[in-house]
Amino acid sequence: MINYKVRPFRPEDIPGVVDVGLHSTYQYSKESLLNWIKYDPEGIIVALLDSGKVIGVCAAVRHNDEVAFGGAFCVLEAYRDSDVGDKHVENRNLGLNSSADKVRIYTNRGFRVTEKLWSILEYEFLGPLNTKVLSDALPAGVVLKTFSDDYLEDIYAYDKMLIGYDRREIVKENCKEPSTKTLVAFKRGICVGYGSVKSNIFDATRVGPLYCNDQKVGEVMFKRLLEQMPDVCQRFGHVHH
Ligand SMILES: CC(C)(COP(=O)(O)OP(=O)(O)OC[C@H]1O[C@@H](n2cnc3c(N)ncnc32)[C@H](O)[C@@H]1OP(=O)(O)O)[C@@H](O)C(=O)NCCC(=O)NCCS
Asked: Which residues, in sequence order, are bridge partners of residue 85?
C-alpha cells in the first residue's frame, strides 16, 4: 500500500515531474508545463508521496471550452500497478493518443477508439545531426516566415482545419515559449503549415508540432528549424511524428 495524494501540479513540482518524465523519455518542455497551467490551472495533476516526492503525472489540458487533450501519463516504475495511474482529472471531455499496446488502459475506462489510420513513428538519434542531407528547395510560391504575432490568426485557422477544433490558446502558448522557434509556411498568402523546435525536458532538440500540406515544405521547415538550434550538432535530436 502506497501512501500518496493527488493534487494539481505547481511550478515547484517541476524537478520531480521532470524526473518522472525522464524515465519515459517524455517530450514536453519545462516551459510547456508552466504554460499549460497558466491556461488551465487544474489541467495537470501529480501524485506525491508524503515526503513530497513526485511519483506520477498526468495531463488533461483544456484546449477550449469543450475539448481537453490528455498526455504525459506516467508513474515511476517502482510505484506502478497500485492504482496510482487510475486517479484522473474529472469533468473533461477528453481525447488522447495511445500506443496500440496500451489502448486497453483507456478502453477499460470508457474511452472509445475513434481513429486508427495514423501512426506514431519515433526516432532518436545520438550524435551530431547532418542537416545538409535535407532539401532546402521550397515548391514554387511557398515562403517560410519566422513566427510573429501577426501570423497567429493564420496559424489558428490552419490548425483548426487540421485538428477539427479550435485550440488557439495552446497553439499560441506553444509558439511563444521563450526557447521555441517557429516557422510558418505561406503559399500565395495562405498558411499551408507551421512547425516549432524547442528543447525538451532532457535538453534534447525536439521538433514538433510540425504540420504542412506538402512533404517538401515539411522537409525544408525541418531542416531550417534544426539549423536554428545553436548546439543541435552536439546534442541529440528527437523527432516525434
Ligand atoms: C501507464 C501507467 C501510467 C499506468 O500507471 P499505474 O500506476 O501502473 O496504473 P494503474 O495501477 O492504475 O494501472 C492502470 C492500468 O495500466 C495497465 N498497464 C500498465 N502498464 C502497462 C503496459 N506497459 N502495457 C499495457 N497496459 C499497462 C494496467 O494493467 C492497468 O490496467 P487495468 O487496470 O485496466 O487492468 C504506467 O504504467 C506508466 O507510467 N507507463 C509508462 C508510460 C506510459 O506508457 N504511459 C502511457 C502512454 S499511452
From this structure: none
Amino acid at 187: K
Q: Is the CB of 109 under 6 A from ligand 1?
A: no
Residue 84 in contact with ligand 1 by CB distance below 6 A: yes
> Residue 11: what residue type?
P
- CB burial string 169-190: b at 16+ within 10 A, e below: bbbebbbebeebbbbbbbbeee
pTM: 0.87
pLDDT tens digits, 46-66: 999 999 999 999 999 999 999
Q: Is 96 in the pocket of ligand 1 (CB under 6 A)?
A: no
188-206 average pLDDT score: 91
Q: What is the grid cell recorded at 91?
A: 469533468
Q: Does residue 108's CB lie within 6 angstroms of at least one atom of ligand 1? A: yes
Task: Give the Cβ contact number of residue 132 at 10 Å.
Answer: 8
Q: Are strands 190-199 and 4-8 parallel, antiparallel or unpaired?
A: unpaired
Q: Which of 28, 80, 113 to mutate to test the pocket of ligand 1 (most atoms within 8 A of CB)?
A: 80
The reply to whether ligand 1 has any atom less than 6 angstroms from the CB of 119 is no
Hey, which bits of the chain come out as E strands?
4-8, 44-49, 54-62, 68-75, 94-95, 122-125, 142-146, 181-187, 190-199, 205-212, 237-240
Residue nearest to atom 35 of ligand 1 (CA): 105
More confident residue, 76 or 127: 76
